[in-house]
Amino acid sequence: VHFVESGGGLVQPGGSLRLSCAASGFTASRYRMYWYRQAPGKERELVAYISYDGGTTNYADSVKDRFTISRDNATNTVYLQMNSLKPEDTAVYYCSSSGFWGQGTQVTVSP
Questions:
Q1: How far is CA 53 from its chain centroid?
Q2: Pairing relation of β-strands 100-101 and 45-50?
Q3: How confident is the model over 37-63, as pLDDT tens digits?
Q4: Rounded to 10 degrees, what is the CA torsion of 28, 96, 72, 53?
């Protein structure tokens, strides 16, 4: 099982990024999928999750109305659209499901 995150980078405050998580060796369509993040010196926190069919989503209060999680079960891919980014969104972002984790992608929000 492999989860590969991509799409991170350096962006100015107020900017946007779209993260992708491609799953292989894993039928993502059967499972809830999660995005987590970990900032330097802080514990890993749940950012958002999406039900197996995409019908239910949930967000941390800190990202609500700015981030959108979605999925494409045909390609085994989960996305995180991040808008109105803030410096406090700086972290390594991970996708996860059923105990499996990707390697993470760095998001840095800075002027």
A1: 17
A2: unpaired
A3: 999 999 999 999 999 999 999 999 999
A4: 60
**Residue closest to 109 by CA, chosen among 23, 8, 30, 40:** 8
> What H or E segment, with its residue span, contains residue 39?
none
**CA–CA separation, 87 vs 27, rounded Å?**
34
Determine how many CB atoms are found less than 10 A away from the CB of residue 84: 13
Per-residue pLDDT tens over the stretch 74-100: 999 999 999 999 999 999 999 999 999
> How far is the C-alpha of 34 from the C-alpha of 109, rounded, in Å?
21
Alpha-carbon torsion, ordered 8, 93, 21, 4, to 10 deg: 90
For strands 77-82 and 67-72, give the pairing: antiparallel
Whole-number Å distance between alpha carbons of 27 and 29: 5
